Structures are given as C-alpha cells and as structure tokens.
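User:
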Amino acid sequence: MATKSRFSWDEIGSQNPIFSQIRTTIETPFYGNNVVHVNSLREAYKLAAASPGTIVTDMPVYNPEAIGLDPDAKVLLFNDGAVRGRAAAARRIIGEPGVNTAEYALKISEAVYQSRFKKLYHAQVYVGLDEDFMVRAHLLIPEGQENIMYSWMLNFQYLTDEYFNMYQRSNKLKNEGDIYVFSDPTWSHPEHPMGLTCFDPQHNCAAILGMRYFGEHKKGTLTLAWAIANRNGYASCHGGQKRYNLPNGKKFVAGVFGLSGSGKSTITHARHNDKYDITVLHDDAFVISTENGSSVALEPAYFDKTQDYPLNCEDNKYLLTVQNNGATIDENGKIVLVTEDIRNGNGRAVKSKLWSPNRVDKFDEPVNAIFWLMKDPTLPPIVKLRGAELASVMGATLATKRTSAERLAPGVDPNALVVEPYANPFRTYPLADDYNKFKALFQERHVDCYILNTGHFMDKKVTPAVTLGALEAIIEGTSEFKPWGKFSDIEIMEIDGFVPDLNDADYAHQLQERMKDRIRFVESRNTEKGGFDKLPAEALEALQKVVKELE
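Assistant: Predicted structure:
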C-alpha cells in the first residue's frame, strides 16, 4: 500500500513519525460506536438523495453504470445558503509560525466531543490514479451532510476491486499514514466566524469545521495529498495538463497553471475545433515526477463552474452533483436546473470523468511546456521566459484577480491584483520547495516556460481565440518569438493589436511597477510567517534584473 493504515503494537507510539497529537485527535473518532461505514458509491447516492433539502432532478446521470451508480441515478442538487466559496482566512497550518498545536488540538477535541450524539459517516477514497502515486483518504462527516460525502466520493476515486488491486501494487511511501479528514459543517466558534480548516500536513490529517462548501473538502483533501507528493519526489500542481498527439507521431505535453476563472479548465479541455487529437490528464490536480517528468492525475472527476453552461449545453450531460444553482419545471413537467449563476455566483458541479472523451490517468511522456496563466494588464497575451530562475520565480509570483470562488475576509479588496504562488493557495510546505522543483524542470528537464495573459492587456480584452491561437502556433512549431525591448530573458510573440510600446512612458512605468510588486512579494517572504516561505536570493535577483532592464 502507498500509505500505512495498520500498525503492529511496536509501531504505535510517540517514536513513530506518523503519529502526532492532532492526527490522533482526528483519527480517534473514526472508531466510535456512532460511526456508520459507507462502503459503496451506490449507498452514498441513496443517502444523499434522501438527505433533507436535496433536490433529485429529473436529469439522468449519463452512463451511470460506468461510474458505479445504478441505471436510474439522477443528478442531485444541493444548496449551501449564504456560503458559496472557500475561505482562505479560515486556514490554520500546524507547523507554521504562530500556529499553536495545543490550542487547535483542544478545539478539535471539543468539536469531536460535540459530535458524539450525531450519526457519523465514514467514507474512503483513493487520491492519485496510478501505481506511481496513490494514497488512501478517509472522511468522517455527520448525518445531514450526505451530499458533501457523495460529491467527495465522486470527485476522488471510490473503492473498487480494480483500484484496490492497483493500490496494493502501488509504490510504498515511507512514514506516510493514510489521510484522515474530520468534518462538521454545523460547528461554530466565536474565534472563527468563517469556520476553521486546520491542517497537520506532516501527519496527513485535517479538521474542516463550520464549512458547508464542498470545495473546502475537495481542496482540503488535495492539500494533504499535495504535501505527501512534495515529500516524495513530485512537483505538486494545481493546474491542467493535456497532450497533443500530432500527425507526425510527435507528442506535446502542456501544463497550464492558473486560479479559478483564469481559463485553466477552458484551455485544458479546448479541442481547437477538432484540429488536433488531444488527450487530457486533468484540469485541476496532478503531480509531476522530478525523477522522470511523468505526470499522474489525482482525481477522476471534475469540479467545474456552471456559469458558462446553459441548461441545453451538451456539457451538462455529464453532471453528477450540482451545488448552489436553481431549479425549475420544464415544459414536460420535469425538474431541471437553472444554471449560468442566475441564482448566485460560483455555482458549481461535479462532472463525470466521461466529460473528457480522451482521458487518461498518467502521462509517461515528460511535460514539454509550462504556461503560467495570469491576469496582469501590463503583460501582452504571451511571452516566453528564458532562464530557469526567472521562469520559476514568475510562477512563484503568479499574478491574478480574485474570483467568486473565494469568501473574502472583511476589508479585503476583491478587485486588487493578487499574487498566488504557482496558482496554488493550498500549499502547506515552504514555498522554496515548489520554486526548486519547478526550477529543476526548467533547468534539468529543459521544459519551456511561457506566460499567458488571459485577462486584459491594458484596456483590451485578450479573447480565448487569441490565447488558443498562440498555443496552436507553439504546438505546431510555427511561433516566432523575438527579443522584447532590452529584456535578456523575456521574448515576445507579436500579435496584432497587442504589441506593447515600451517607448510609451506610462505603459513602461506600469509594467515596471507590476514587476516591482513581484519583488516586494518575494522580499516580504523573508519576514512573513517567520521566513517560512523565503525564496533563494537568485529568485529576487532574476526579478531585479528585469526591472533594471526597464530603466
């Protein structure tokens, strides 16, 4: 097995690095006499369909037997009230400066005690879909929250004979226990008005308290899986990856990294009007081996926005569960969805693996190019980065706009340009780990690096057609990159209507300021959280070189 779940008596105790105060506090209630084991996806579906407030639509699940459901399974809708996104302000990471282990162990133990009069469901899944990387995860959640549990089992790989046998053959990870997640969405605490997501990433466990949104459970589980991957020779990726199978027999693997709303899923699933034979790995979560450059998907399903999918859209055929959307009656008297974010922002759905017609769980071929997706109005639609240090630090200072997928703390400007390293707000380990792993891909594995601006270039929108056109030129080998101004490590593909004028003093000043924003961000890592995310000096020097070349 990849992670360890059973121990000899000699292995149990403080000397075993798998155990900790937080882990033991979280794992213990899984064995309570108020716990019911949910052993199949069919069982989870029935529980979710019967849960108070669930809307069992008249929309059938497409090919339900292929994903472990009964032939009459329907798309389920459940809404979360006022809570419709993740709350970064609620995250606490054990091991980071200022996070008191004893304090949070006490809060979690009290949450566990308060759950003793509730029926609790225990579900299991695998995270990682290939023998190279698979870990087992457990969720404990109260009765009344069956829709979260069902979506969680759909999103990850529920237990089957095929995957059980694959897991038995999978690589053994030393000193890594199973993932344990304790959740109680009804929990409240005066010190945590937005809820609490407490992670002990070194010991593969989390408590998700006061959180109704399914995305907290999906990303909370991935947070722990990515931490395991980081410790075991993988670059952890919040992004999409696809392979272009070209007519000449060559293959081109592209990884795209961006936050929700950046175009990550759109680019990953784009078929370019069927111009290419395309294979998809995943659009949200995967890992890249630093040993051989291969990639493994972490999830079979997709957690996608419903904003851009009207009811009659063909893509909706693959819906499994839907969150924070409306419902109505169609002309045939059937209960159907009201999508397009008419009800509220950040409507979401879990979509079947079958959504992508050419989907695999592993790319043996190493990645050819990485694309950082940014919404920085001073950047043209595409630039190419030379030098492993600049390529990696631009990923570490990935700039974007906030989206409706986030619940913001009071006083936070939703329109401000923000930096999210490697588009992964779910990292629990030092930022330097990601910097060094991506730098190694650029330097040692000779992966190309580009920035795609999928927002506005100054006041002009960069359309999907412009973005996909630039991608096609790179895939086909027809792209022409030329030196950009005085930059020694940045090249530009000139696209009509989007050519920057570095002689325009106002534009050059804004570009310089945005680069200085990145410098300030890197400098702030030296002191914030006690220097937990400090980057090597070379990262700062690469950015300073860019600013100097603008003078």
